[in-house]
Write a structure and sequence with these properties.
A five-stranded antiparallel β-sheet has the order 3-7-6-5-4. Strands 12, 13, 14, 15 and 16 form a five-stranded antiparallel β-sheet that branches. The protein has a four-stranded antiparallel β-sheet with strand order 8-9-10-11, with no helix packed on it. It is an alpha+beta fold and about 300 residues long. It has helices at about 5-15, 20-30, 35-50, 55-70, 300-310, and strands at about 5, 35, 70-75, 95-105, 115-120, 125-135, 140-145, 155, 165-170, 175-180, 190-195, 205-210, 215, 220-225, 230-240, 245-250, 270, 275-280, 280-290, 295-300. Helix 2 (about 20-30) crosses helix 3. The mean pLDDT is about 90. It starts with a strand and ends with a helix.
């Protein structure tokens, strides 16, 4: 599973980060379209002396190495079983874990299907918002999400574009929910506040519990709320399909809260999920209990939609 890099990716990212300069151009000028970390490292050493006294050398090299460490590909053998394809943290940014991955099946405007997961790379001190994608669960591409709004935990993609743009639910200030949109799935520079805590069970903090789920009546968004005693509960709301910044309905009470037997654990008083799905007209919701065990709950979609209607 040797890492391989694409030149076009680096050039695009450096342009987005406003680090496209003579040094970066010279680094990639003689690299092939696909290259290894060793080839990149050797190329940087080759050009260092030429720019030794320039003030941009250190910043440029550090940025290139940052992109290389956090952006890579992993390939599994075709004959390997799906259960054997385990993704381990290998970069310095993720040495302590790949956290809270929010998986989704994304359908592009041309009908192409890509599977994405947004997650947090954790190094023991800080997190880095990351994204990986695959079309076959054999080859995986990892990249760091960039842009001034790509920060904090809990970023979740919508499963398709809206008006030709990618949309994301995020929590960039650690307390409220934001709606983000972008022309690029890994570059996020635009966000608007669209929801603040409203009910006692979510008074201290709100966020998403996975990517929005499309229904005929709107985007079903599962949320988490943090209330008294740092108790995490799971709620639900319905967003307008064409204008997801518009909240059609929000349930005043959580759909799931920690039972007494679920309150003890490494992080107590918590039920939490990174996404659900609809199957046979039921919402299937896997969830974790206080970071100690996990379970699955099902909810009738008819009952859930009736509850939304009554809450309006």
């Amino acid at each position: 599973m040797k890492a391989n890099y694409e030149k076009t990716f680096f050039l695009k990212k450096l342009e987005q980060l406003e680090m496209e300069n003579d040094i970066s151009k010279n680094i990639f000028k003689k690299l092939p379209s696909r290259f290894s970390f060793e080839e990149l490292q050797n190329r940087i050493e080759d050009i260092k002396n030429k720019y030794l006294h320039t003030h941009t050398l250190k910043d440029t090299v550090n940025t290139v190495y940052f992109l290389a460490r956090s952006n890579h590909e992993r390939h599994f053998r075709p004959e390997s079983h799906l259960s054997e394809r385990v993704l381990f943290p290998v970069s310095k940014e993720a040495i302590k874990g790949l956290e809270d991955a929010r998986f989704l099946r994304f359908c592009d405007d041309n009908g192409e299907i890509t599977y994405y997961a947004t997650y947090n790379a954790y190094n023991g001190f800080e997190i880095l918002p990351m994204l990986f994608k695959t079309t076959d669960f054999q080859s995986f591409h990892f990249c760091a999400m960039t842009g001034v709004k790509a920060k904090d935990k809990g970023m979740a993609l919508f499963p398709k574009k809206i008006d030709g743009k990618f949309f994301m639910i995020s929590r960039i200030d650690g307390e409220n929910m934001y709606l983000m949109k972008s022309n690029s799935v890994d570059f996020w520079d635009e966000a608007q506040l669209f929801q603040t805590p409203k009910y006692p069970w979510e008074f201290f903090q709100i966020g998403n519990c996975g990517s929005p789920i499309e229904t005929s009546k709107g985007w079903l968004l599962l949320t988490h709320g943090v209330g008294p005693m740092r108790s995490y509960c799971i709620g639900a709301e319905l967003l307008d399909l064409k204008n997801p910044s518009k909240i059609i309905a929000q349930l005043p009470e959580p759909i799931l809260m920690p039972l007494p037997r679920e309150r003890d654990g490494y992080v107590p008083n918590v039920v939490y999920s990174c996404g659900g799905l609809i199957h046979n007209n039921e919402l299937v919701l896997p969830y974790a209990m206080s970071d100690s065990s996990c379970g699955v709950v099902t909810i009738s979609m008819d009952e859930l939609m009736n509850a939304f209607e009554q809450s309006q």
